From TrEMBL:
It holds the Pfam family THF_DHG_CYH. Homodimer. GO terms for molecular function: methenyltetrahydrofolate cyclohydrolase activity; methylenetetrahydrofolate dehydrogenase (NADP+) activity. It comes from the Bacteria. It comes from Naasia lichenicola. GO terms for cellular component: cytosol. The gene is folD. Residues 143-291 form the Tetrahydrofolate dehydrogenase/cyclohydrolase NAD(P)-binding domain. This is Bifunctional protein FolD. Belongs to the tetrahydrofolate dehydrogenase/cyclohydrolase family.
């Protein structure tokens, strides 16, 4: 038996086709959605991610506003760039690409973002609304990876109400907000949020009907940790040098043998990554729709 594929590439393509129609409808009403990205420094992985985001935007008719600062930019430079993105009417939503260079206060940067333009859903106001349970079409954005995971499961018919979801990792962009989202009314999962100080990960993971691994430890999750038939989502990415080719290879948190036990498995690449990007574009389009709704008629 081999797990069925949670195909993020195909699902993201379907979401982008739906978004294109919403973008066309906005353009008719005179609103052009635009995604801004603020990237500090020259980390090649971050550059590749940002380029991918702008590629997605061009596919759906969303404009791109790209701001790149050198690695030696000061915190004041970053704050000033954020203020300009807040003020730029062409930018309906934007992200500050993380991580910021060593020593820079990422939380201060996130707090400076206009919450109505927060395409990552990581501003404290929007994280607070996630806790309060305020969201929906015309209210506030959800963090992209958690929303992408829920959407990926939903569109493959994997039900969450009453299920036990084990999340590995408590990071700001995935684990922490995913736990909050999954336990909300309407999604109704029971969540175990495990992390590097959890004593016996294998025992925790064995309880999961759904397992989400977002820790960045290559092939951490073993086949004998998985309840047969469980849905397994591989979020982590680590660049590992392949000993045969000598080249860096993207390696997920899930051991490949898990495919023999799981009922569903998200490939990596091609799973959660493309969903994160599609939900980012969705947040930008939704921000533009909120602008339209707020416009005096
Ligand atoms: N403010 C902020 N928001 C983010 O959403 C954010 C961030 N900072 N910093 C870095 C992480 C990482 N991240 C990825 C998104 C998509 C893929 C993705 O689509 N990956 C492809 C493979 C790409 C490749 O081959 O290099 C895939 O999974 O198929 C990867 C990584 C968003 N992040």
């Amino acid at each position: 038996m081999s797990a069925a594929r949670l195909d993020g590439t195909a699902t993201a393509a379907a979401i982008k086709a739906e978004l294109r129609e919403r973008v066309d409808a906005l353009r008719i009403r005179g609103i052009v959605p635009g995604l801004g990205t603020l990237l500090v420094g020259d980390d090649p992985a971050s550059h590749a991610y940002v380029a991918g985001k702008h590629r997605d935007c061009s596919e759906v008719g969303v404009e791109s506003i790209r701001v790149d600062l050198p690695g030696d930019a000061s915190e004041a430079d970053v704050m000033a760039a954020i203020d300009r993105l807040n003020a730029d009417p062409a930018v309906t939503g934007y992200i500050v690409q993380l991580p910021l260079p060593q020593g820079m206060d990422a939380n201060a940067a996130l707090e400076r973002i206009d919450p109505s333009k927060d395409a990552d859903g990581l501003h404290p106001t929007n994280l607070g609304r996630l806790v309060l349970g305020v969201d929906g079409e015309l209210t506030s954005p959800l963090p992209c990876t958690p929303a992408g995971i829920v959407e990926l499961l939903h569109r493959h018919g994997v039900e969450l109400p009453g299920k036990h979801v084990v999340v590995l990792g408590r990071g700001l962009t995935v684990g922490r907000p995913l736990g909050l989202l999954l336990t909300r009314k309407g999604i109704d999962a029971t969540v175990t949020l495990a992390h590097s100080r959890t004593p016996d990960l294998a025992t925790e993971v064995r309880r999961g009907d759904v397992v989400v691994a977002a820790v960045g430890v290559p092939h951490l999750v073993q086949a004998d940790w998985i309840k047969p038939g469980a849905a397994v989502l591989d979020v982590g990415v680590t660049r590992v040098i392949d000993h045969e080719t000598g080249k860096a290879k993207l390696t997920g948190d899930i051991d490949p043998a898990v495919a023999e036990v799981a009922g569903w498995l998200s490939p990596n690449p091609g799973g959660v990554g493309p969903m994160t990007r599609a939900l980012l574009v969705a947040n930008v389009v939704q921000a533009a729709e909120r602008q339209l709704a707020a416009r005096p008629s």
